[in-house]
Write a structure and sequence with these properties.
It is built from 13 helices and 13 strands.
Length: 315
């Protein structure tokens, strides 16, 4: 067996172990004058951090643009095309073509003079098989302002990320720094969120319930047992859990088991029957039927399809 996630009572670490975050090469941007650049759809997690000056970001489908000031960070996972600009009233040109024609000085690209914007832009690659899991954590766009408690630490991490992106050992270092930067983003979002998975994790009792489900995913939990463990009535836990997480506790447990199964089918040479028993199913047929209902494929079909597509190498 290889790459088996170590499960604990820290659900956020469990989820991050499945996401397998990796950092792509970040760029330092220095821009002056009037400009507007349009970028196509993407399939990773993007970030923009403004160090000096400001810029606009308009995402297709959003009613309002984001105005990023010095110290702000925008994290984008929606995958929708977008425009970045000094002035959104200017017709946008192709952003990829623009960057292809710019000279680079190390990891810095510059255009226009004098520079009125200094920013860091980059990407975090995520296990493509776990995009649904990422969507549970991060909104389509997340704007962290300079006064966010997480902003100073995030800026230091991203600067370290940029400096460590070259040289011996860079792949290992940047992967770890990318993980830490994403944790800072998630913590900041969770502290401010009123609902969603991260808000649930911060809730004393629902968070304790999540810890138990993650710590023993193979256990045949009942809502009554789970409620008793966290000091709530069955009805109160069921209501609060659904309000925050958006689904019932046992439905969440089923989905978490399926994410674990998906990961194992990617990365482990494990018989389907053994995997099913590991996840709490009494038979291979019961596990296979549950996986097919969730994914639309039998476990063996799923394993063959992702390996044939080369997805393992991407995660």
């Amino acid at each position: 067996m290889r790459d088996r996630p170590e499960l604990s009572v820290d659900p956020l670490s469990d989820v991050l172990s499945l996401l397998r975050v990796r950092g792509g090469m970040p760029l330092r941007l220095q821009a002056g004058g009037a400009w507007a650049l349009r970028f196509p759809a993407y399939d990773y997690l993007k970030f923009i951090v403004v160090l000096e000056g400001g810029l606009w970001v308009q995402v297709d489908g959003d009613a309002k643009p984001y105005l990023l000031a010095a110290g702000d960070c925008l994290v984008m996972r929606s995958g929708r095309p977008y425009v970045t600009a000094s002035d959104l009233s200017i017709p946008a040109t192709d952003g990829n073509d623009h960057f292809a024609h710019l000279a680079r000085d190390g990891d810095t690209v510059a255009w226009g003079a004098p520079a009125t914007l200094v920013a860091i832009a980059g990407r975090f690659d995520i296990n493509p098989a776990q995009r649904a899991l990422l969507a549970r954590l991060v909104p389509p766009e997340l704007h962290l302002t300079a006064d966010s408690p997480a902003a100073p630490a995030l800026h230091r991490l991203l600067e370290l990320f940029r400096h460590e992106a070259r040289g011996p050992g860079s792949r290992l270092v940047t992967a770890n720094v990318a993980q830490m930067a994403l944790v800072q983003v998630l913590r900041a979002h969770g502290a401010a969120a009123q609902d969603g998975w991260l808000a649930a994790l911060a809730d004393p009792q629902v968070g304790a319930a999540l810890q138990r489900l993650h710590g023993e995913p193979a256990r045949r939990w009942t809502v009554q047992e789970l409620a008793a463990d966290v000091g709530m009535s069955r009805s109160a836990l069921a209501l609060r859990f659904r309000q925050l997480v958006g689904q019932a506790p046992l439905q969440y447990l089923l989905q978490w088991r399926m994410h674990l199964a998906q990961h194992a089918l990617h990365h482990e040479e494990i018989p389907v029957a053994t995997l099913g028993f590991r996840l709490g199913y009494s038979s291979e047929s019961a596990f296979s039927a549950a996986f097919r209902r969730w994914s639309g494929q039998w476990p063996g079909q799923y394993r063959t399809s992702v390996r044939g597509a080369g997805v393992i190498g991407m995660s």
